[in-house]
Design goal:
The protein is mainly β. The protein has one domain: Beta-galactosidase, Chain A, domain 5, CATH 2.70.98. The chain has four helices and 21 strands. The strands form three sheets. It has a ten-stranded antiparallel beta sheet with strand order 6-7-8-9-21-17-16-11-14-13, with no helix packed on it. Strands 5, 10, 12, 15, 18, 19 and 20 form a seven-stranded antiparallel beta sheet that branches. The chain has a four-stranded antiparallel beta sheet with strand order 1-2-3-4, with no helix packed on it. β16 (235-242) and β17 form a beta hairpin. The longest helix is centred in the first third of the chain and has 16 residues, at 7-22. The protein is globular, with a radius of gyration of 21 Å. The protein starts with 6 loop residues before the first helix and ends with a helix.
């Protein structure tokens, strides 16, 4: 017969062991053909950050489950050179979109620093003088991740730029975003937000669902026509539903700031290979040596099912996770 511990001792041991069991661990691992990657996990979810290229978060998912982020097979494991590669995962760019500043190849090793549950990955300065850094902090329990993106001006002249975070989702799901709170006419006469169209946007494409509170875009591996829109929402939200699991990213935008792309704090894009949930920071003039930060909060949820694509159903299935 195993003796029972006194209640006070058992309670004390539980208080000590439980936090240890939930603590975040960080380990260096090979992943997707790259020998040097870092895995962060709290036992429920895991993230993988590349060190051979980047900065790039290449995986986010439940432990042992699917990767909600796409991994582009043609680029996995590759390093070096000036060829621009997509790779997959979540990355940091420079906005507004520019063929020189935005498409800097992130093919070189990054400097990794680990401090407790935080990991930072800092890239070498790009040829055009911008340096990128991503800091990841995973909660001890649950699925929440705070991701801090930074752009630094390493030139000798001012740069007028904005942060632009593009998270590339795996094929076959549905991307969702929210509109600012709706109102009625004539009680609210002023416009509440821009809806930005691109030259290739086709609002009649069957992959779109245009609702009162939400906009949804389905990723179709059999449709190579690109689709994209932008919009502004102070409570910028992007979500992706794939196989009963929901990825959510949150970004807080300020109506008092100037945003790229005709005032967009959020953009959603798809083609046959992936769907992107994109957040954009405000335009800022960076003097030499200055940097700007961009904070996103991520979470994962399951099981999540959507029976029909209307406002009432999304209010039930999705809205609680977007607050």
């Amino acid at each position: 017969m195993i003796p029972r511990l006194p209640k006070t001792i058992a309670t004390t041991l539980l208080a000590i062991v439980a936090p240890l069991a939930a603590a975040v661990t960080v380990e260096k691992i090979p992943y997707a053909g790259w020998p040097n990657c870092y895995r962060l996990t709290n036992g429920e979810v895991e993230l993988v950050v590349t060190a051979d290229v980047g900065p790039r978060i290449i995986r986010y998912g439940f432990v042992g489950g699917q990767n909600l982020f796409v991994e582009l097979e043609q680029d996995l494991g590759k390093t070096g050179g000036d060829v621009w590669r997509l790779y997959g995962g979540s990355r940091l760019w420079v906005a507004p979109e520019d063929r020189v500043y935005s498409y800097g190849a992130d093919n070189e090793p990054v400097e990794i620093t680990v401090s407790g549950s935080k990991l930072s990955a800092q890239a070498p300065t790009e040829s055009m003088g911008v340096q990128k850094r991503i800091e990841v902090e995973l909660a001890d329990e649950g699925t929440e991740v705070k991701v801090l993106y930074s752009l630094a001006n390493r030139t000798i002249w001012p740069l007028r730029i904005a942060t632009w975070v593009l998270t590339m989702m795996h094929r076959g799901g549905v991307g969702i975003t929210t509109l600012p709170p709706r109102g009625t006419h004539p009680e609210i006469l002023a416009p509440t937000n821009p809806l930005v169209l691109f030259a290739f946007t086709d609002m009649s494409d069957s992959r779109w669902s245009w609702l009162e509170k939400y906009i949804a875009l389905r990723q179709d591996p059999d449709n190579s026509d690109p689709e994209k829109i932008g919009l502004f929402n102070p409570a910028t939200r992007g979500a992706y539903l794939l196989n009963g699991e929901l990825f959510v990213k949150k970004f807080e935008a300020s109506p008092d700031e100037e945003y790229p792309d005709m005032g967009s704090s959020f953009e959603i894009f798809t083609n046959e290979s992936f769907l992107e949930l994109e957040t954009l920071g405000p335009m800022q003039t960076l003097q030499p040596g200055e940097s700007i930060d961009h904070l996103e909060t991520w979470s994962l949820h399951r099981p999540v099912t959507v029976g029909r694509w209307d406002d009432a159903e999304l209010d039930r299935a999705i809205a609680p996770y977007l607050k």
